[in-house]
Write a structure and sequence with these properties.
By secondary structure, the protein is α+β, with helices and mostly antiparallel strands. About 35% of the residues lie in helices and about 25% in strands.
């Protein structure tokens, strides 16, 4: 077996509760408000006020909302957390070069060069901590800097509040920690269960085992865990290179909320951004617009509002400025402080050759684009809509409308390939009413037609009546078909069974109608 490499002295910076801090900055959530970040229906991180209400990471969302009805729920966005961490990474690079990003909220550098430059590891850690505090919008009162042998030990030292672990002292620091910590770091969480069944519950006990036996029993993950337990961590710290982002940063001379002034200030920067995209033979199909607002009298940093924009074709300078204007218009509907900075970044880029037009073109005519965009400027961005079909049980659930110029829902959102019980078979109706229209269906005796709980008709459908319109004679019909979706909800709310019918009247119009508890509605029409 090859000897383990010498441990590397690592200086690590940790911002506790960074996901919560980043979400507060991005969404402007008050510090005293209970907040939880969720992913896949479970709580990923939560604020201290939410913890006081009994909420913990791993709780289901519904359980957390039951414990705290006032809980502010936000989706966990790892990309947004990393963007919010960028100013701190730049501040660290100004003090010590070659910063390694571990994850948003945690970054590391090699301690050797920094200690030689500043005179000691303690002095270098202090300089790094001051720089990070200054870079954080709220002063970052809980920034911790720890120095130890290896990245793993340095991170555990930061969690325990230990500033400097002397060379060779990492095994003693880690000895009393549970093996679950090191099993996750080694990439095999299941290894912790096996170790506990063997009576090995701490990292110190694992370090006392012969390395060859650990390797034979657990393979490469066991070898990695044993090296970490012995303090023999030689991590590869990849220097973070600032990405060559296609972005524009517009600093306003004076804070303002005048939309025309802000759009005018953005004009030149957007033109340059569009030119850089074109020079790279690229096409931009998505952008992110971030507005920074002036802080209040008692605030150290202002609110940050962020929005993603996607386009079905490509975004030129005119289209980007349109979206800046629309975002500012939507922002003006709520109270906010004047804007001091606007950031525009290209988030989705494709090779221009992939968007070259075919023989007949692949986008609407320029005259159509100009007309519809002009209507959006007059009536509002969301006043001109484009429809698309999505998955759903009821017909009104299968309609999705998005503003013109915005990318239509992708396959994952549309969910057309999934099975949808109770959907209408065969050709879809050509007209689906936004709200079902009330009507009556009569039998041959002129009495209202009804359906029993067992789906049995009380007569033959003969006449269809509409409020304010002449009645029609029914010439053909099919059904009824029960709609059984979400039966558990109807049981709780004591709703009556729902059935579908297809009717054809004497004017050769076909209707899709619904029946429940003796009442009838027209859901759609076939033309």
């Amino acid at each position: 077996m090859k000897p383990a490499p010498e441990p590397v002295r690592v200086m690590l910076v940790w911002c506790p509760h960074w996901p919560v801090l980043a979400a507060r900055m991005i969404h402007g959530v008050p510090a005293e408000a209970p907040m939880a970040l969720v992913a896949k229906g479970a709580v990923v991180a939560c604020s201290s006020t939410a913890r006081d209400e009994g909420i913990r990471p791993g709780d289901r969302l519904r359980q957390a909302q039951h414990r705290c009805p006032d809980l502010v729920v936000l989706q966990h966005d790892l990309d947004a957390e990393q963007r919010a961490f960028e100013p701190i990474l730049r501040a660290m690079a100004d003090v010590v070069p070659s910063v390694h990003l571990v994850r948003p909220g945690v970054a590391a550098v090699r301690a050797g060069g920094a200690a030689r430059f500043y005179g000691s590891e303690v002095r270098a850690a202090q300089e790094l901590q001051v720089a990070v505090r200054r870079a954080h919008p709220d002063g970052a009162p809980e920034v911790r800097v720890a120095v130890a042998d290896g990245l793993f030990a340095a991170e555990q030292a930061a969690y325990q509040g230990v500033a400097v672990v002397p060379p060779g002292g990492s095994p003693g620091l880690l000895a009393d920690l549970p093996v679950t910590v090191i099993a996750e770091a080694a990439g095999d969480p299941k290894m912790a269960n096996v170790l506990r069944r063997m009576g090995i519950r701490t990292i110190g006990a694992l370090a006392g085992l012969p390395r060859e036996q650990v390797l034979d029993r657990f393979g490469a993950a066991g070898l990695r865990a044993h090296q970490l337990a012995c303090g023999l961590d030689a991590p590869i710290l990849n220097p973070r290179t600032a990405p060559d982002e296609l972005a524009a940063r517009i600093v306003l001379d004076e804070p303002t909320d005048a939309i025309e002034v802000i759009v005018s200030e953005c004009g030149s920067a957007v033109e340059q951004l569009s030119a850089r995209i074109n020079d790279g033979s690229l096409v931009c199909t998505g952008i992110r617009i971030i507005t920074h607002h002036e802080p209040g009298p008692r605030e150290t940093a202002g609110e940050i509002h962020e929005r993603e924009w996607r386009h079905p074709w490509h975004l030129g300078s005119r289209e980007i400025l349109d979206r800046v204007q629309w975002q500012l218009t939507d922002l003006g509907k709520s109270k906010h402080r004047p804007i001091t900075l606007v950031e525009i970044a290209a988030t989705e880029l494709d090779a221009a050759v992939q968007h070259s037009q075919g023989l007949w073109g692949d986008r609407p005519d320029d005259h159509v684009l100009h007309t519809l965009t002009g209507l959006q400027h007059r009536l509002g961005y969301d006043a001109v809509l484009v429809g698309s079909v999505v998955g759903g049980r009821m017909l009104h659930e299968r309609q999705s409308f998005s503003p013109f110029g915005q990318a239509t829902p992708d396959r994952a959102v549309r969910r057309l390939e999934q099975p949808w019980p109770d959907t209408v078979p065969g050709p879809a109706p050509s007209v689906v009413f936004r709200e079902a229209q009330a009507m009556r269906v009569l039998t041959e005796r002129g009495t209202p037609l009804s359906i029993s709980d067992r789906g049995v008709l009380t007569g033959m459908p003969t006449t269809a009546e509409w409020p304010g319109r002449p009645s029609s004679r029914i010439t053909a019909w099919a059904g009824p078909w029960p709609v059984n979706g979400r039966w558990w909800r109807r049981a709780k709310t004591n709703q009556k069974p729902l059935h579908r019918f297809q009717l054809v009247d004497d004017q050769q119009r076909a209707w899709l109608v619904l029946h429940a508890a003796g009442e009838w509605w027209a859901e759609a029409r076939y033309d």
